[in-house]
């Protein structure tokens, strides 16, 4: 790489776009760790709060209107409070600490969980922000194939529900619009790309940015 900073690739993704599968493949090819739900277990261990609390709150917004308003003012990145330890706001702060710790310690790929926002102000980390999306027919097909959903209408409902949860979660904790392409370094439409092509595209982009892989 161009300096001694760690390289962290954050990946936002539409449900059914292939973002998670792409992330795993890319991590294997780059020889770095891939973090998705593993972050929930790690945060539970760091905070001594039961993992089930983090799973219930995973990528879901809270319902505190005031917090939603100040989220864009980076209040969400403050220290966890000793009060109401299991509030969604506090759980997010614990999770953010783990994400920052990972980024300082190793080059890796982190999926979702507002990692692009959390790492934005980290001085010792190089961050490449990706967003993976695809057209609806492709997403329906992938959800049916990967999740074993038999009915296309059910796949559509699941896609819309999970996308809505991710959009509201991102807005709640960052004050920004999930899927706003101006927030990402490289938005990728996976509709007509294979996994190998996706991995090659991202590796090419990383090299263009001056990082050696």
Distance between the termini: 7 Å
Shape: globular
The tally of domains stands at 1
Under the CATH scheme, the architecture is 3-Layer(aba) Sandwich
Q: Which strand order spans the largest sheet, edge to edge or round the barrel?
A: 2-3-1-4-5
Low-pLDDT ranges: none
**Name of the CATH first level:** Alpha Beta
CATH superfamily, called what?
Answer: P-loop containing nucleotide triphosphate hydrolases
Strand count, sense and barrel status of the largest sheet are:
5 strands, parallel
Which value, in Å, is the CA radius of gyration?
17 Å
Overall mean pLDDT score?
88
Topology pattern, helix = H, strand = E? EHEHHHHEHEHHEH
How many β-strand runs? 5
Estimate what percentage of residues fall within beta strands.
Answer: 5-15%
Q: What is the CATH topology classification name?
A: Rossmann fold
State the helicity in percent bands: 40-55%
Q: Helix segment count?
A: 9
Structural class: alpha/beta
């Amino acid at each position: 790489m161009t300096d001694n900073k760690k390289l962290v690739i954050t990946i936002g993704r539409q449900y059914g776009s292939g973002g998670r599968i792409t992330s795993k493949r890319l991590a294997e090819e780059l020889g770095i760790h891939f973090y998705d739900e593993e972050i929930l277990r790690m945060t539970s261990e760091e905070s001594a709060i039961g993992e089930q609390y983090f799973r219930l709150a995973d990528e879901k917004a809270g319902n505190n209107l005031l917090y939603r308003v100040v989220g864009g003012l980076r209040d969400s990145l403050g220290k966890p409070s000793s009060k109401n330890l299991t509030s969604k706001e506090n759980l997010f702060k614990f999770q953010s600490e783990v994400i920052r710790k990972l980024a300082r310690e190793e080059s890796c790929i982190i999926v979702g969980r507002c990692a692009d926002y959390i790492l934005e102000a980290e001085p010792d980390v190089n961050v490449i922000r990706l967003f993976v999306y695809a057209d609806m027919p492709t997403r329906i097909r992938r959800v049916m194939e990967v999740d074993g959903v038999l009915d296309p209408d059910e796949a559509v409902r699941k896609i819309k529900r999970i996308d809505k949860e991710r959009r509201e979660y991102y807005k709640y904790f960052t004050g920004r619009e999930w899927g706003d392409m101006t927030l990402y370094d490289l938005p990728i439409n996976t509709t007509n790309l294979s996994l190998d092509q996706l991995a090659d595209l991202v590796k090419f982009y990383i090299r263009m940015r001056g990082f050696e892989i």
